[in-house]
């Protein structure tokens, strides 16, 4: 019995697997398997080791209820752990509500989304808005399973992004807001300063660094009190057919069929930009405008979070590293080369030389600081920016991307205190990861209190909780 994740880079081989119908059945399963390792899984749209577990596996897709209640001028929704985001959005919309924050995809379950810090652009991560987590765990004194509700203090902050380490999440109570419209249009700029200046007018924008063209495509977005545009349906059709499918099919052809670096680079310099209609301003419902069909084609991804004051340097470093990886350059600029030498990473840079040609836009999204213990945007007084690096290479041809991802994670964590996304490729050692989070010790304390025997851990989370990292100096 085994299952593979979306990216086909992880294989799950549980000793037993269940799809419980209700909370009582979850408790019965826990009592039946007392003393064994137990992990919950969502829709497996994760590339990290967080999804792994060789013990008892619980798929909670049948726990998918949604209860929406008014709360002043806002709403609160109580959502079953296995409810997919796309279903949740439909149910919320029936009541005139939606989520504060939306990621690019909607196939995830709510429990999986908050457990790994899923985020959108221009707001906090989804985890930040969680008010209560209801979970099944064991009573230390009796050894029996019971349901605990975490709604305050550090237990709640830990549960908002827990990596599945506190117990089996049964439901989540999350703050929601009235449904709203978003206006969107695209522009292009060569200057990062122009992109960041636009945030004042378009606070929920995201942008893309286009490899080999080395310009920024800015997806300007802001709330719009006006009505949905008459051409909103046409815009959605354009986005679905031209961007979600047309552009990606072109990338798949270049990477998987043609396998020509020169053609990939030429396509991004000259052809990809033709897919984009600039300055076409369209207003549509937020739950339609803020998401993509990013799951339509199998891929693999690493995402690195840097603070605003590190963003410009991190993007310059990114551009140079991509050129070295593709064999266009043999060294970095003098400043970056000095940093690599100081951190003893020249050998890793040499190994990367001419091994990988990046073939997808680098998506950059702003995330406001979260009130959590270990979500990627937790802590500090600056906004965070998530840089996504995606490969559409077939699973058997990912060696080059693996080299690139490892180098970017190691170098950017040391040079810019970058944090890898918990749910994506996360190649750092446990002590390196935990050192990036000033409140990781508090997270350990909560885990030890709620799961003292480590029943709900896998090998990866156990290593994180046992790691002895030195906390990074993050103001």
Comma- or semicolon-separated keywords:
23% strand, eight-stranded antiparallel sheet, six-stranded antiparallel sheet, disordered C terminus, 33% helix, 475 residues, 15 helices, alpha+beta
Structure description:
The protein is an alpha+beta fold. It has helices at 23-32, 85-94, 110-115, 153-159, 192-197, 232-258, 261-271, 286-289, 308-325, 334-342, 346-352, 399-416, 430-434, 440-450, 459-466; strands at 3-4, 11-12, 16-18, 38-41, 56-59, 66-71, 74-80, 97-99, 130-138, 145-150, 168-178, 181-189, 206-210, 215-224, 282-285, 300-307, 362-367, 384-391, 419-420. Residues 471-475 have low confidence and may be disordered. The chain is globular and about 65 Å long. Strand 6 (66-71) and strand 7 form a beta hairpin. Strands 15-12-14-13-17-18-16-19 form an eight-stranded antiparallel β-sheet. Strands 6, 7, 8, 9, 10 and 11 form a six-stranded antiparallel β-sheet that branches. A three-stranded parallel β-sheet has the order 3-5-4, with helices on one face.
- How many β-strand stretches? 19
Estimated helix fraction: 25-40%
**Multimer state:** single chain
The fraction of residues assigned to DSSP E strands is 15-25%
> Roughly how many Å apart are the termini?
47 Å
Nearest-integer average pLDDT: 96
Gross geometry: globular
Q: Biggest sheet: strands side by side, in what order? A: 15-12-14-13-17-18-16-19
**Structural class, judged by helices and strands?**
alpha+beta
């Amino acid at each position: 019995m085994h299952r593979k994740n979306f990216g086909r880079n992880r294989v799950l081989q549980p000793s037993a697997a269940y799809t419980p119908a209700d909370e009582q059945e979850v408790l019965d399963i826990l009592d039946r398997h007392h003393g064994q390792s137990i992990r919950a899984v969502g829709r497996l749209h994760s590339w990290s080791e967080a999804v792994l577990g060789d013990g008892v596996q619980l798929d909670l897709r049948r726990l998918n209820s949604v209860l929406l209640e008014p709360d002043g001028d806002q709403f609160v929704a109580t959502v079953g752990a296995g409810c997919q985001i796309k279903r949740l959005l439909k149910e919320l919309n029936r009541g005139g509500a939606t989520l504060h924050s939306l990621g690019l995809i909607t196939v995830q379950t709510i429990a999986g989304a908050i457990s790994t810090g899923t985020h959108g652009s221009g707001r906090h991560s989804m985890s930040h808005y969680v008010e209560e987590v209801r979970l099944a765990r064991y009573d230390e004194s009796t050894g029996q399973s019971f349901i605990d509700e975490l709604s305050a203090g550090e237990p709640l902050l830990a549960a908002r992004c827990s990596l599945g380490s506190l117990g089996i999440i049964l439901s989540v109570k999350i703050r929601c807001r009235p449904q709203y419209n978003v206006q969107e249009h695209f522009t292009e700029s060569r200057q990062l300063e122009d992109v960041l200046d636009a945030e004042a007018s378009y606070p929920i924008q995201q942008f893309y660094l286009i490899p080999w063209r080395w310009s920024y495509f800015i997806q300007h977005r802001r709330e719009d009190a006006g009505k949905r545009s008459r051409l909103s349906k046409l815009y959605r059709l354009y986005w679905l057919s031209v961007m979600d499918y047309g552009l990606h099919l072109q990338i798949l052809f270049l990477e998987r069929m043609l396998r020509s670096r020169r053609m990939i680079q030429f396509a991004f310099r000259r052809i990809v930009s033709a897919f984009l209609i600039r300055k076409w301003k369209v207003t549509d419902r937020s739950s339609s405008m803020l998401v993509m069909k990013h799951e339509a084609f199998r891929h693999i991804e690493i995402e690195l979070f840097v603070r605003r004051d590190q963003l410009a340097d991190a993007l310059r470093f990114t551009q140079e590293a991509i050129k070295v990886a593709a064999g266009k350059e043999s060294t970095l600029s003098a400043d970056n080369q000095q940093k690599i030498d100081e951190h003893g990473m020249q050998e890793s840079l040499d190994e990367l030389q001419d091994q990988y040609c990046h073939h997808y836009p680098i998506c950059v999204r702003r995330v406001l600081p979260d009130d959590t213990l270990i979500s990627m945007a937790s802590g500090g007084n600056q906004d965070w920016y998530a840089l996504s690096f995606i490969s559409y290479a077939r699973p058997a041809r990912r060696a080059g991307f693996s080299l690139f991802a490892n180098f970017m994670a190691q170098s950017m964590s040391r040079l810019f205190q970058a944090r890898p996304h918990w749910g994506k490729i996360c190649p750092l050692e446990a002590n390196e990861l935990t050192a990036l989070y000033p409140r990781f010790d508090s997270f350990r304390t909560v885990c030890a209190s709620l799961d003292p025997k480590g029943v709900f851990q896998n090998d990866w989370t156990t290593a994180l909780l046992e790691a002895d990292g030195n906390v990074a100096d993050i103001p």
